[in-house]
Amino acid sequence: MNFFLSTDLSIGVNEALSVHEHLQSLGVKKPGIIYDAVLTGSDYFQDVLRNISAGYSNCVVYCNEFRGEPTYAHLENVAEFFRRETPDGLVAIGGGSTMDLGKGVALLMTNNVPALSLKGFPKDVCDPVPLVTVPSLLGSGAEVSFNAVFIDEAEGRKLGINSRKNFPKKSVIDPKLSMTAPIESVIASAMDSLVHCVDSFGSKKHTPMSRIFSIEGFQRTFYALQQGQLDRAESRLDLALGSVCGVTALMNSGDGPTNGFAYYVGVKHKVPHGLAGAIFLKEVMRYNYNQGYDKYAMLNPMHSGGSAREATAELLDQMDSLYRQLSIPNLAPYGYGKGNIAELARNASMALSGSFSGNPVEFNEESANVVIDALT
Description:
Elements: E1 8-11, H1 19-25, E2 31-36, H2 43-55, E3 60-64, H3 72-85, E4 89-94, H4 96-108, E5 131-135, E6 147-148, E7 151-152, E8 157-158, E9 161-162, E10 170-173, H5 183-202, H6 208-227, H7 237-251, H8 257-269, H9 273-290, H10 308-326, H11 341-351, H12 353-357, H13 365-374
Parallel strand pairs: 1-10, 2-3, 2-4, 4-5, 5-10
Antiparallel strand pairs: 6-9, 7-8
Helix pairs in contact: 3-4, 5-6, 5-7, 5-9, 6-7, 8-9, 9-10, 9-13, 11-13
């Protein structure tokens, strides 16, 4: 059994006000800051930025106004901006896309090559400049993962730059930075956590250690969403912990059909990744249950006794209630109906064979048809 963790964590309300101190502990003399444009109107973010600027009058600031997930071309442009300014460390403040952008820039600062040349799983790259991630949404897990997602526009596919050297040196997680985000974005990001937890839990590559993180992450995130008290920063600490646990489990196991569907539909219809995953999650779980898979019982924190199959059925009932509570949509708003589900199932199964193969029971084009049919 192998298991790895690499990022130093600081989690707490108001913790982001100390980002400059964390930079100093890393020996950074001239930081570059990449922040998400949607944070501009947040008074708390402005306090965070002022604190960093007070500690570093020479800091270089870049506002990321790019909408959606970054392309390799956008990464190239931002990397060129920072190469001219030569910071010796970076801070990425924002959602998963902005933190992924920070990983890519940190690597390109020390590897003077085209961004596309690092596509996939690059070997023999130089260590990046130190990166500190500060998430403004809680769920993608980008703040502690080595994966960085980028879109290859020529191929119309999400790929990425996936090197263990991408691990941030430090992640400063402060739920107060998420308080100005639209509640739909908060929910979509939290649902991304649930996808990570469920896919990693059921993955054929799971380990006893990864399952500890899958279960803890699922239960904390599920409980926080059920309680409906996300208007308090303190209540979002469970989302923060769920995010870290979920992506840690995923890195140490593998994904499954839900994450695969999310990548496919997300790119094709520009659906936020977390929401795209949420659309499919419950029905993939139900498909597995109908095929005899009952180990989801271990994810059920409210199980009142009985068999594993009963506990799994109970969890699926709770998922149904949560989906109604959160108004998670089906596929109809994205143009899918009974007439074109076969096409989606065929295309998805061709593109996502790796994700499908990670499912705890056999999952193929016919399986995809069953899941998609339930969502139209």
